[in-house]
Predict the structure.
Amino acid sequence: MLVLSATILVAGAFQLHPGAGQPVSTTRYVLLTFDDGPDPRYTPQVLSVLRQQGAKAVFFVVGKQVEAHPELLRDILAGGHTLGNHTFTHASINGKTPGEVLEEVRRTDSIVAEITGENLRWFRPPRGFYTERNYLTLQQAGKVVVMWDAGLEKERIKEPAALVDYLTFRVKGKDNLVLLLHDGDPDNSHDRTTTVEALPLLIDELRRLGYSFVDPSSVEGQEFISSYAVTHQRYK
Ligand SMILES: [Zn+2]
């Protein structure tokens, strides 16, 4: 039943216009996802923008960041957002044994459950790398791997409006989108200030382009993510 509804949701992006016989795009959906937090420098600002804009998101949290900033995890949930698992150490899972992958997953599951009581269903591998063997291990552990269509941040682009333009250029014509942003920096290699500045511009622009924001905590939102996960597998 869940699978059937998800198919309808995605297929429903195009409908025949009654009378005209021309396909018209009726509904476009976008899911915002934030990786690498929680981080006291950026997560509160991201939550504030999302609250002002009335948009919900999935936060793929890193276990060691959760351990250091448990209060931010509660703030994310209080904002009506959804949590996902982004490993404990943020090391690539490629090259890890199934046992090591499960250890990364379970350490984060367990600290998140301890703080919030939440069970994490969605998983995103660090840097988006995973093997078929990893995928099967994660699946057996009840995790759903959620990838993305395009990432906002680009090292060479520092101007928030230019980042938004470049992102919307790359996803032009797509009706169902998952976007990757970052609200943290577990490896101390990136400043996320530009992300925070670009976020309200991005949300405005996506709305202007006709996108509705997926609420990942809703039944429809969960179906959207499940369906997306099935059709966007990329082993590396
Ligand atoms: Zn990451």
Notes: Residues 1-23 have pLDDT under 50 and may be disordered. DSSP finds nine helices and ten strands in the chain. The radius of gyration is 18 Å.
